[in-house]
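Recall that a protein's primary structure is simply its ordered list of amino acids. Everything else, from secondary elements to tertiary packing, is in principle encoded there. The following example makes that idea concrete.
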Amino acid sequence: MKTILLHGLGQTAQDWKEVIKQTSSSNIDCPEIFSALEGDITYTRVFDRLEQQYSDTTEPLRICGLSLGALLALDFAIRHGNKVASLILVAPQYKVPGLLIDFQNFIFRCMPNKTFDGIGISKRNMIGLTRSMRSLDFTSQLGEIVCPVIIVCGDKDNANLKASKKLKELLPQAKLRIIPGTGHEVNKTVPQAIADILNKY
């Protein structure tokens, strides 16, 4: 089984480094979501690239994604359930809250361009990407996900904790792990918690 780790907005593949160090699996892919895309970056283009990357994969996939990565993982499992053995969704949303996106975009607009230099996406493209996610809503398609699901969220991640609990209700097969004392970027702040889940499941 291949494990795919999908980073979030404002992250790169390097942010999974400590998780990978503590996992027992050697069959891990950790793609850079943005760096290979040229021109305008939208959610659809990001997903299409992910889909192409794993279109010929025959081994079962275990997809672990944080935030944007969790959205991509959900979407992939809805469209390609026959390829997905399990999902680990960290700080997930299944229906993107428009007000949160608008607030994020306001913050991004106030940040200097150089802030985005290290994450493989420009300020303009980050704003365009988040805007393209504003209408994403997988609520009606969640029933198509039949694989095992583990939902992970930090207890201080106020923006995503409520959605994580609701997603657990909407996916009867899902298990919820709330990580105490941490916020949104669980893969960076408590990598061992994610590694333990990967090693157990």
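The helical segments are 17-21, 43-53, 68-79, 98-110, 123-132, 158-170, 186-189, 191-200. The beta strands are 2-6, 28-29, 61-66, 84-90, 149-154, 174-179.
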